[in-house]
Write a structure and sequence with these properties.
Strand order of the largest sheet: 7-6-5-8-9
Enzyme class: transferase
CATH superfamily of the largest domain: Aspartate/ornithine carbamoyltransferase
Organism: Halorubrum ezzemoulense DSM 17463
Order of helices and strands: HEHEHEHEHEHEHEEHEHH
Distance between the termini: 5 Å
Number of strands: 9
Family: Belongs to the aspartate/ornithine carbamoyltransferase superfamily. ATCase family.
Strand content: 5-15%
Radius of gyration: 19 Å
Largest sheet: 5 strands, parallel
CATH architecture of the largest domain: 3-Layer(aba) Sandwich
Number of domains: 2
Function: Catalyzes the condensation of carbamoyl phosphate and aspartate to form carbamoyl aspartate and inorganic phosphate, the committed step in the de novo pyrimidine nucleotide biosynthesis pathway.
EC number: 2.1.3.2
């Protein structure tokens, strides 16, 4: 991790992850102890793509730490609509804030931003690339239910374009986890992601059907088929709705199975799953507050206010 940026989950060691999650647990147990820790500091929210959970939870997390937030607003009402480059945008905003959260449709955008500014940058999603802060709250949710070792997880849906999947898979290589990936052939993990996982010695298997492995799973992580990522709408319609679960699907699942989803969902998880003991996706979303408070606290604690090189977080 360059200085205090969080760009990809691959930067995070096991120790890094556990340190943030331990702090998140402390925040959840005693949020008042973290109030006003960063009073007077400012977090800039720069979202070039739509967001509800990530934008609002970072906003809420910052304010619970005593920070103020500034928001770039809609891209169409910003100078981006006049042709301003991402490089210039983040260099300008750097002068207004102590940290910057960036979501952008282009893979690699957060890397570029991190190379241009000295304040901490958090990648809140770069196209079909990575979403590391989502991964931290996913891991927090899993750890609270099952721990992160001796874990068997199934990830189902859009594995090709799913940045939450790419980040989570990378982070789980730091733990003793068996990873199963369930998707149609056309939405399997990108070759580059599979290569990176194999290079770490990760235990992964790919499937086109959930049923044969459901009884092995501790966690089922479901993702939306992302219409906005498909270059060809006809390709989207060929796979839309192909992977769905409902309460009947889970009738023979292990009693302690945790069902997760980064949200928003469309039709891949039926509403009747909400009433089962398996559902954790709303709790998962709510975990964005303590985890992002812990992350911001860590990044700002490590950032050097004099502008010299800060302590590295991650490797």
């Amino acid at each position: 991790m360059r200085q205090d940026h969080l760009i990809t989950a691959t930067q995070l060691s096991r120790d890094d992850i556990e340190a943030v999650l331990d702090r998140a647990r402390a925040v959840a147990d005693d949020p008042a102890a973290y109030a006003d820790r960063h009073a007077g500091r400012v977090l800039a929210l720069c979202f070039f793509e739509p967001s509800t959970r990530t934008r609002m939870s970072f906003d809420s997390a910052a304010k619970r730490l005593g920070m103020n937030t500034i928001d770039m607003g809609d891209v169409d009402s910003s100078s981006v609509s006049k042709g301003e480059s991402l490089s210039d945008t983040v260099r300008v905003i750097e002068g207004y804030a102590d940290a910057l959260v960036l979501r952008h449709p282009s893979e690699g955008a957060a890397t570029l931003a991190g190379e241009r500014v000295d304040v901490p940058v958090v990648n809140a999603g770069d196209g079909a690339g990575q979403h590391p802060s989502q991964t931290l709250l996913d891991l927090h949710t899993i750890r609270e239910d099952h721990g992160l070792d001796d874990l068997t997880i199934g990830v189902m849906g859009d594995l090709k374009y799913g940045r939450t999947v790419h980040s989570l898979a990378a982070a789980l290589t730091e733990f003793d986890a068996n990873q199963h990936f369930i998707s149609p052939e056309s939405l399997r993990l990108p070759r580059s992601v599979r290569f990176d996982l194999h290079e770490t010695g990760a235990q992964i298997r790919e499937h086109d059907d959930l049923e044969p492995i459901l009884d092995e799973l501790d966690v089922l992580y479901v993702t939306r088929i992302q219409k906005e990522r498909f270059p060809d709408e006809n390709e989207y319609h060929r796979v839309a709705g192909e992977y769905q679960i409902d309460a009947e699907t889970l009738a023979d699942a292990p009693d302690d199975l945790t069902v997760m989803h980064p949200l928003p969902r469309v039709d891949e998880i039926a509403p009747d799953v909400d009433e089962t003991d398996h559902a954790r996706y709303f709790e998962q979303a709510h975990n964005g507050i303590p985890v992002r408070m812990a992350l911001l606290d860590t990044l700002l604690e490590n950032a050097n206010p004099d502008g010299d090189e800060g302590t590295e977080v991650g490797r």
